[in-house]
Amino acid sequence: MRHIVVVILVAFLAGFTSCNSSESSDSTENKENNLFISGTIKGANGQKAYLEAVSQNGVISVADGVIENEQFDLQTNIPGLGIYQLRIGEQPDNALIITAKKGDKIKISGDISNIAFGAKISGVEWGNQYGKYMELVAGFSKSQNELMALQGQLSQEELVKKYLELKKPMDEYAREQINKNPASAFNIVLSNSLMPATGFVDYPKENVETLRKMADSYEKNHADSPITQTLIQQVTQIESGYNEYEIMKTGKKPAPDILMESPEGKEIKLSSLKGKVVLIDFWASWCGPCRKENPNVVKLYNKYKNKGFTIYSVSLDTDQASWVNAIEQDGLIWPNHVSDLMGWKSFVIKLYGFSAIPHTVLVGKDGNIIDVGLRGDALEKRLAEILK
């Protein structure tokens, strides 16, 4: 479980640290030290302590030193606010995240057997936050392992719902702490909890507001850090995506038209179905979750086809035989099956802005989008509201 937690905390850092990794890799020779990290690590005598920047291109060493009498002392020069990994010894699990700015004197104490969870941090304003947040991360990781074991027993919608429930304490703590002190260096870590991990369905508006508050504060207080510019870009993208989703839900955004061929070579235009409620279902024969969802889609088609409902299935297959066989095997009896057999190179990916399938878009009788990302019980409930 320790390894999973390290991955959780480190994996998302690439987006931030790739911007400042080149600066971190610059030689610090002849530069005055402005970051000081020291401490006591029980059980680590004789091992090395490594301060590293994590980037998309790998790990870049910033400073290192041997732990003697369980004590270590690292000093280096940093260009400004940054995020780093302090690794003890050669095991990647034995690591913790450090957010640091010029002049910080950070003290760390802990035991090598539980350094990621149990480290105590002092000397910086976010020391207590680190301990509390790691408790929440540890609990979330344990519960997430248990949730993964339920795959196959629960529907995708049930899994997502439980995932969001498990994640809720982390989200609430992150929002509370960021709103209290939006300029805090540790917010780089806390903000990870507020990113839209499962799209914008059920994504809280207060997350957007908190992230914007943090970005504005960073722009004012940490303008010299590349992390700030990356954060601003990310928050702007999230705001744009959230606002786009909200517009879609109002039913005022027209569904971009699609013109593709059926397996028989007949051109079928999405707009030709105007006047009906249309479920655009992006899927593929090779997509396990798509195939698992198909019986539910068939059930809903049969239930509502006489009430002005139809389905426009867009396949991301590249092999026509596989596509046709899946249609027959899963009993997808509606007539509107199309594909350009371009897979993930299809123009519809950018046109509808999705990165995973199955993905659904619900279009009203007027041709405007009224919801996205619905499956299972959520889709059936929405159709029941519309097609009374």
Automatic annotation (TrEMBL):
GO terms for biological process: cytochrome complex assembly. It is found in: Cell envelope. PROSITE patterns: PROKAR_LIPOPROTEIN, THIOREDOXIN_1, THIOREDOXIN_2. Keywords: Cytochrome c-type biogenesis, Disulfide bond, Redox-active center, Signal. Pfam families: Redoxin (PF08534). Residues 249-388 form the Thioredoxin domain. InterPro entries: Redoxin (IPR013740), Thioredoxin-like_sf (IPR036249), Thioredoxin_CS (IPR017937), Thioredoxin_domain (IPR013766), Thioredoxin_ResA/DsbE_sf (IPR050553). One of its GO terms (molecular function) is oxidoreductase activity. CDD domains: TlpA_like_family (cd02966). Residues 1-21 form the signal peptide. One of its GO terms (cellular component) is cell envelope. This is AhpC/TSA family protein.
